[in-house]
Amino acid sequence: IYDNKTRPIQVKSLNQTGGLDVITTQYSWSGQPLVVVNYQSKGGTNAQTTTTITTNDYDALGRLVKTSKKIANSLINSNALSTEKMIAVNKYDALGQLTTKTLGAADANGAAGTEKQAFEYNIRGWLLGMNRGYAQNSNNTSNFGFELNYDQYPGYGGTTGNRFYTGNIGGMTWRGKQNGAQIRRYNFSYDNANRILNADYLEASGSSFAKTTTDFSSQMGDGTSANSAYDYNGNILAMTQKGLVSGATQVIDQLSYTYKSGSNKLAKVSEAAMNTAAYQLGDFNDGANTDDDYDYDANGNLTRDQNKNITSISYNVLNLPEYIVVAGKGAISYQYDAAGNKLNKKVTEGSATKQTDYLGGSIFENNVLQHVAMEEGRLRPSGSSFVADYMLKDHLGNVRSLVQEDGTLLEETSYYPFGLTMKGISYQNTAVAENKKKFVGQLLDDDLGLNWYQFRYRNHDPQIGRFTEIDPLAAQYAHNGTYVYAENKPINGIDLEGLEWLPVNKNGQGISPDDKENINGYKWVGYDVNAETGEKTAKAGTVATAYTFGEKGRTTLGADKSGNATEKWESYSSLSTGDAATDKKIATLHTSVQNKMKEFILKADNRFGIKLRVTDGFRSVEQQDKLYAQGRTAPGNRVTNARGGYSNHNFGLAVDVVPMVNGKPNFESNQYPLIGRIGQSVGLEWGGSWKTILDQPHFQDLQGFSLKDLRAIPKDEKGLPVLPQ
What we know:
By secondary structure, this protein is mostly beta strands.
């Protein structure tokens, strides 16, 4: 069911158990979900219903400031809605950057709750860390904190580590609660293609970092030479990792990779380090030691892995695994819907069978509800109620700690660069069901020793740092191995849903090229080149022409005929909006707002494809009086309640705009909420966000002056205020 703005307000569907799912959404005027009611009915054995009510609050700029939840289940609490749980309270700085997030807050103002997270940024808007004070040992009030350094040394530990001016992360300091709340650190180094070469592990000793008896270092190849680490397609050639074995540091992996001739497909991985299988560290073990350990089907999907004793894997038409046989252990089967969403998993081991059903965010194991996913973690049944478990994440979305709402630490996980768990310093409370969402927030499938992370389109093996299926966009990334994880840049980027490497935004999250409202700039990545023909083709997710906007002008980004990047800066005063009427209106405005108004109009057009016309700009006091008289003492309809001198238009600081469609103004456009956010992004006040009389077409920049101030300020010969410099 849709509303009159074509937004879905209720969706009904049958789930795989035969039950009914109903999602009902109430939107704000600008299209943001205010209340979402999710009703879910599980049919079959142990039939039950679950209802969650999610309430979101936003500030005047449309930013999410509060999320709360109620939950009911027919078997857990007899369908009696729980008291409202304050899931998260967010606060932002003047630039719109998230500064604090209080999980499990005691009230809507963010009073101390389960965990308070403080985020800090550098002048470029890059994330410097979360709860840095805790990571630097200046307080003991958190469960997890981390610090990133780019071109600066860390705040704790002196001049340790590397500094880079390329945007690469030189090092990461982190601290959890377990193992004496030890402060730990990775110093990173990269090759010239920004691929990881070395992650050198250190621990705090006094006021600095040093090598200790604990070491979780990881290096690619010899740690310094790209040619020893990767082949020409970016496939890993060698990887060495250290870890704890019976409390002592050992080299647990010393891997050499061999590929099938003329292919990115893996043929063999050799292990030169000790066999750690008996210690259950989760790392690679050479279970076959043959020259051909791996097989693939015609689509490039892994069908055999002798090191894991996987004898066969069959796939569906979407190249998703349907049936896996593990010799000596059992089999795993998966069921998906037509879009590739996983519906259930069945593990058969001897005479025992375990079935996991995925009903949206509700997870059932052998028909028993395990938990319901929520924005910051999970809601877990506990007796006759639900308990909130919160996931504390780092800049990549790795789940580092799982904390119960009362502050009890349930899990703590540290990771090697490609996602392998550091077993010697990680912790799990075995009295509570394990959280399977771990590395970059993806689901760990560890049944029968599989130990894969299930991304949306393929599976990642953290033991060897590569995918088991081909990249769906492989044809568009000829420079890169088709099984490579995140272009071997696992510190700076994530492989979003198993599709392609994307940069991490200022909040440490992957961003889609289509996420236009969050674009802060563009990075030149060049072209893919056909090795035989030399033909250049655009890479996926790139654009031929892009625009960035500054305070005084626009930069056009493009390429010349040779395929080299070009940049051209033009002042706003030299640019036309493309509409003569709009240019004329902007030219009548106060000079202090002309650049900002032109930036607004150009950004709407160049980035969002919305052509705007300024219908009203500066109006003299005499013109305002004539407009006020309309419908009162003069013919026509009333169009304003402001007399001369009482409209912000009279001071040249405001405009009214209308979107143009096929050359005609569309005053009934449903795009005004987006237009409003575009205007706000350049620093304009939007009339559509006012609490009293809404004026969607109106945008202004009063620069801190009140109407009374503007009336009192002397005017120039044009009637515009002479504002202080």
